[in-house]
Please model this.
Amino acid sequence: MKILVINGPNINMLGIREKHIYGSENYDTLVELCKKTGEELGVEIECWQSNHEGDIVDKIQWAYFNKVDGIVINPAAYTHTSVALLDAVKAVSIPTVEVHISRVEEREDFRQVSFIRAACCKTISGQGIKGYAAAIEFLAKGEYKL
Ligand code: DQA
Model:
């Protein structure tokens, strides 16, 4: 089984950006956690990050052609703006979990909209970087309904 972990804009700035919201752990630590979780579950993990919306669309399409079994995605700010990412996840029909490090439900009004959520089998928010491990475990155990 192969799971692709996609992170959107500014997630590479973890540990530097707004630590009171996103914590002090950096992107490398996030990647290590995902890889370790994959090893424990016997799942191959690829972590990938981009600040560019179209590149993220390309990577979701790449997942289809490269036989990825599950996607964990934190689209970051594109969560709240991008119909293109919603359409991409719908197009590939790969089980996808939406992850947010912060508790988006308790933040600004503009963060209450998630376009991609309609195409995801689960949303995890407010668990810090541990939310990625929970998402990988959820996909690895096949706990979703398509
Ligand atoms: C985020 C929440 C988004 O609203 C924000 O734009 C981010 C990160 C999170 O992980 O909590 O960049 O997706």
Observations:
- Residues 27-41 form the longest helix (15 residues).
- The domain at 8-125 is CATH 3.40.50.9100 (Rossmann fold).
